[in-house]
Amino acid sequence: MVTAAFIIFGLAAIVSAIMVISFRNPMASAIALIVTLCSIAGLFAIMGATFVAALQVIVYAGAIMVLFLFVIMLLNLKRDEFGPEKRKIQRTLGIILGLLLVLEVGIFIQAGLGDFGPSPAGDKGSFTSITELSSLLFTKYLFAFEVTSLLLLVAIVGAVILAKKKL
Amino acid sequence: MLIPIIIMVVKVLVIFAGLMTCVAYMTYAERKVVAHIQVRKGPLFVGYHGLLQPIADAVKLLFKEDFTLAGCNKIIYNLAPLVTFIPALLAIAVIPVGDQITVAGETTNLMISDLNVGILFIFAVSSLGIYGLVLGGWSANSKYSLLGALRSSAQMISYEVSLGLSVIGVLLLAGTLSLNEIVKAQSGGILDWFIFRQPIGFLLFVTAAIAETNRIPFDLPEAEAELVGGYHTEYAGMKFAMFFMGEYASMITVSALAATLFLGGWSGPILPPVVWFLLKMSFFLFSYIWIRGTLPRFRYDQLMRFGWLVLFPLALLNTMVTALIAIL
Amino acid sequence: MFEVYFPLLVLVFFATAIAVIMVVLPRFLGKKEITQPKQTPYECGMIPVGDARERFPVKFFLIALVFIIFDLEVVFFYPWAIIYKHLGLFGFIEMMVFVFILLVAYLYVVKKGVLEWE
After folding, report:
1. d(Cα A109, Cα B244) in Å, to the nearest integer?
2. Per residue in A7-17, is it b (16+ CB within 10 Å) or e — as a string?
3. What is this structure's pTM?
4. Is B127 within 8 Å of A54 when comparing Cβ atoms?
5. Chain C 4-63, CB below 8 Å of chain B: which residues?
């Protein structure tokens, strides 16, 4: 049961991720990316992490992707505005980095560091306790939580300065 | 093993059919109530006092011509009504419509799924609904629908923050995200209802919810006087209706959520729990129509200013004051 | 876990099925008489001028960004709210610090006029 759901969501995530980079139309790519993010939420859900799954949908699929769609609609780049093809360097760099990633994953599998099946929590069929999760966040990882607010402050100041010419 | 599965499926079917019936008859109720507010009679001829009107409408819509515009993106154009409609139907899953019942020796909650993050599930699902509107407005390649989509999506995201923030007060008092347990926390009688301990939170929630479901006085997406029709200008027939059915479905969900969070859900004396739940939900649905018959529409700049400069700070203040009172 | 997810899947199935039927069925039931005026976007009866997909004010981008920031803030309130009773005064103070820093961001945005519409 859990394994079947894992395979379905995993496949959906991979296929839609490939669609993101293969579509010509930026709008279609964005839709595929939304599907990817929702499938990842599904993966979280079958591991019993319902809270993380809900946040994944609310924050990534529901908030960040709205910004992506706005930017695509805002710019409306036509094909001739992309400029001439100057992608030689990017392409070689992409190939090199991709090979590096494959190497890394290979090393991980060799060393047995990552277990790529469904997590043991999913097999037990239990849900992660939200109470435990939040008490960890607000006691042990308190510093990270407070620093997040500073990060958000910096992000918003940066965005406003970039977007508004007259300050 | 088989009996629990059958019970689950039957439960889903009953609640889903109930929701669809509510959506259909909400259109009838709206026409009838608004008509009587304006001293008209509303639908009268199809069935007794027009009671079969929704069915006649559905049949008519199914037989409408199905066409797309020349310059539009056909796949996205057809996808957009689905993206609005499906999430709007899913949100009802975590709302408890009644107390536990025992069928064939199995005790079961009268809700589709008792998710431990129930309220977050509703917010997650409803945050996906915005894509239907953006994609629908963009795909048609029409100026009015694109403008409408841009405006209404900006409106929806602006009020989503306040909507999420306005329920924190209730969560502080209840200490859980499961809607079933929130109902249990207020089942001790009318004075336990969270509306009395969270009056400002209640008002903020209702205001943000009306804006989030694009209803008057926040119905800028359908501002027919200035934007022709908003994001669905270029839609016709069943696809056009699906946007509205999605809107009605989210109105029903939001009303059910308001009843659950603030009015004690299904709890109440004498009458069966399901009846109490439906009564409380209908109260909110009636208020929706009443407000529509009474108030004029906001201007767009007023609407955005109200959302960010009034509603959001108030919701934040309400949360912190509730927290302060809770530790005193 | 099964009794939580299985009904959800059934609901997703029903909702999707009915939605797809509603989109596909009119294609076979309705009449087909496609004419040129029917296919042009509505522009008050005039022949449409130019492409609709023009560039838009940067304002909407800023609104979306402000939304993300404060949506993230709200998301942190949920886990905090459900264990607030155990945290007590400590929880109140740590959230006050968090809210205060984001209040600075909010005031900055308001002062810069991002939320003002002329």
Report:
1. 51
2. eebbebbeebb
3. 0.90
4. no
5. 4-8, 10-12, 14-16, 18-20, 22-23, 25-27, 29-34, 38-44, 48, 51-53, 56, 60, 63
What are the residue ranges spanned by the domains of chain A?
A: 2-79+86-128, 129-167
CB–CB contacts below 8 A, A to B: 64
Look up residue C27 and give its amino acid: R
CB count, 10 Å around CB of B285? 22
Q: Is C100 exposed, middle or buried (0-12, 13-18, 19+ CB in 10 A)?
A: exposed
Chain B residues within an 8 Å CB radius of C3: 4, 8
Residues in chain B with pLDDT < 50?
none
**Which runs of consecutive H residues, i.e. helices, occur in chain B?**
2-37, 53-62, 74-90, 118-128, 130-139, 143-166, 168-174, 179-185, 194-197, 199-212, 224-227, 237-262, 273-294, 300-305, 312-327
Instruction: Give Cα separations from C97 to A134, A157, C3, C102 (angstroms).
Output: 17, 19, 41, 9
- Predicted local confidence at residue B113, as pLDDT: 86
Does C50 score more than 80 pLDDT? Answer: no
Are residues C8 and B326, on separate chains, in Cβ contact within 8 Å? no
Residue C29 CB neighbours (<10 A): 16
Q: Is A55 an 8 Å CB contact of chain B?
A: yes
List the one residue out of A50, A28, A123, C36 whose CA is nearest residue B67: C36
B3: exposed, middle or buried (Cβ count in 10 Å: 0-12, 13-18, 19+): exposed
CATH code of domain A2-79+86-128: 1.20.120.1200
Query: What is the complex's ipTM, to 2 decimals?
Result: 0.89
Q: Are A13 and A40 in contact (CB under 8 A)?
A: yes
Mutate to test the interface with B, among C59, C78, C110 (most CBs of B within 10 A): C78
Of B188, B170, B166, B163, which Cα lies nearest the Cα of B91? B163
C-alpha distance from C83 to closest chain B C-alpha (Å) = 6
Determine the topology of domain C2-111 in CATH: Methane Monooxygenase Hydroxylase; Chain G, domain 1 (1.20.58)
Asked if A66 contacts B157 with a C-beta cutoff of 8 angstroms, the reply is: yes
- B117 and A61 in contact by Cβ < 8 A? no
- Residue in the block written with tokens 């008792």: B114
Q: What is the pLDDT along chain A (167 residues), one digit of tens a residue?
A: 778 888 999 999 999 999 998 988 888 899 999 999 999 999 988 888 889 999 999 999 988 999 998 888 877 766 655 555 667 788 889 899 999 999 988 888 777 665 555 555 444 456 777 888 888 888 888 899 899 899 999 998 888 888 776 54
Give the pLDDT confidence of B56-107 residue by residue, as tens digits.
Answer: 988 888 888 887 777 778 888 889 999 999 999 999 999 998 888 887 777 7
Q: Domain spans of chain C?
A: 2-111
**DSSP code of B231?**
G
> What φ, ψ does residue A131 adopt, rounded to 5°?
-60, -45
